[in-house]
Amino acid sequence: MRLAPVDIDETPRPGESGVALTQRLARAKAEAAARSAPAGSIVVAADTTVADGEALLGKPADDEDARAMLRRLRGRTHQVTSSVAVATPEGLMAIDTCSTDVPMRAYRDDEIERFVASGAAADKAGAYAIQDSGFDPVDVETLHGCFANVMGLPMCHLVRTLRGVGVEPSRDVPSACCALTGYACPVYREILEGVG
Question: Which terminal residue of the chain, N or C, has fewer Cβ atoms less than 10 Å from its own Cβ?
Fold first, then answer.
């Protein structure tokens, strides 16, 4: 495995939905990475958006923007969408998309202040990450969806996409994902069966 960051413009187009944006960017990232990948490589790329209704919440511009995003999301449910693109050496491209409704807990203002002061909000879309221990912004007890998607790479959707181009993972990915996240995923069977 080799990481290959690519430089593409991630600016949303006017009126572009979160789903359309993630699909476009995942494809563009996979195409860009495939151009410089060693011969015979399978390229995996992904893109994730955080949306509150029609508003796409990117990385905060500064601490005040982070506070505003966290207040906006507090005690409500928003959507996280990730698209995964897989490019094969034969030129095949497969894309799959996962959306998860994310319930946020009603965290306090002082919790927001501590979290923003830590610097952890600065590089995260929506100013948070589901795995932010200590802050724990997501009400995981009521989450009914893909935890890994909210982290940025929906693993079962990746498996499904790889299978779509004839690649079978050598590991039990759902078990590994549950072990890594500590989340008893209620949806992985549906996803792998092509329902979710």
Answer: N
